[in-house]
């Protein structure tokens, strides 16, 4: 087994891409983050692959200020990958992935350092089965434009603050990059006033992920979130996605009831874990 640390996202994408693309639902976070690095020029904190007999069998990556994405780190490699990453990326203090992979990685950190582990967020990945847009919701959907960036940036910041995981210091820049990369930033309008938004990530490996979805408090309770999510999902399908997915916060019963009503079905649970010395 060989552990390779990559300096160039293009080289990492060439090495790890086939592994990640083989299961685009399981690795949806890694694929979109890597796309932002590869095509969008976003910075990377660490890029790692595991190679066995000339084949890439594991991968991990992290962007600055975020948890390490470990969906492609098999449990059998967790200990060695955790040790190498700790040396190469000592400021990393968390891991995100499907429950089994994230917990195996965290267990390796605990065994090596004795640290504590706390869940930052527990989520559930849903995949679209048959889209069922809601009926009778007033308003219409439209794609966002450059003039909508300040509004979407403010809503990104509000979404992060409400979810308790706001790590984005430049939300307008995030929206600008999203539009530049070809995401479907969808707004729902009533009487010309935006009342909700949903973002469909660019199609990668024939899959697209919806998120974030946000409705300001004063506009909630009217079905706008379901309507704009359905519109963003349709945009992704029209853009060539064969699978459309989204994450829900398991602590939010509203969203976990909402998405099944428009055609989403659960796939697996995921977790973001924080390491505390």
From TrEMBL:
Keywords for this protein: Acyltransferase, Transferase
Domain of life: Bacteria
GO MF entry, a single one: acyltransferase activity, transferring groups other than amino-acyl groups
Transmembrane segments: none
Domain N-acetyltransferase: 139-277
Transferase among keywords: yes
Pfam families, A to Z: Acetyltransf_1 (PF00583)
InterPro entries found in the cross-reference section: Acyl_CoA_acyltransferase, Bact_Acetyltransf, GNAT_dom
PANTHER family, alphabetized: AMINOALKYLPHOSPHONATE N-ACETYLTRANSFERASE-RELATED-RELATED
Protein name as annotated: Acetyltransferase (GNAT) family protein
């Amino acid at each position: 087994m060989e552990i390779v640390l990559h300096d160039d996202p293009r080289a990492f994408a060439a090495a790890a891409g086939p592994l990640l693309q083989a299961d685009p639902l399981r690795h949806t976070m890694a694929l979109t983050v890597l796309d932002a690095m590869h095509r969008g020029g976003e910075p990377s904190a660490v890029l790692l692959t595991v190679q066995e007999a000339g084949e890439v069998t594991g991968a991990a990556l992290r962007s600055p200020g975020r948890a390490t994405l470990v969906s492609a780190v098999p449990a059998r490699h967790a200990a060695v990958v955790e040790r190498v990453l700790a040396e190469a990326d000592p400021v990393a203090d968390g891991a995100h992935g499907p429950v089994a992979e994230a917990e195996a990685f965290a267990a390796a950190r605990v065994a090596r350092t004795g640290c504590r582990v706390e869940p930052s967020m527990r989520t559930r990945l849903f995949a679209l089965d048959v889209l069922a847009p809601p009926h009778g919701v007033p308003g219409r959907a439209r794609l966002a434009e450059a003039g909508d960036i300040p509004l979407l940036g403010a809503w990104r910041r509000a979404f992060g603050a409400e979810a308790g995981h706001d790590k984005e210091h430049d939300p307008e820049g995030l929206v600008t990059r999203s539009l530049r990369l070809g995401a479907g930033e969808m707004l729902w309008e009533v009487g010309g006033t935006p009342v909700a938004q949903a973002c469909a990530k660019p199609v990668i490996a024939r899959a697209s992920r919806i998120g974030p979805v946000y409705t300001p408090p004063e506009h909630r309770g009217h079905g706008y979130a379901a309507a704009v999510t359905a519109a963003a999902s349709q945009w992704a399908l029209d853009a060539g996605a064969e699978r459309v997915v989204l994450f829900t916060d398991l602590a939010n019963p509203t969203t976990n009831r909402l998405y099944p009503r428009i055609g989403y079905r659960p796939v697996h649970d995921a977790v973001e874990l924080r390491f505390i010395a």
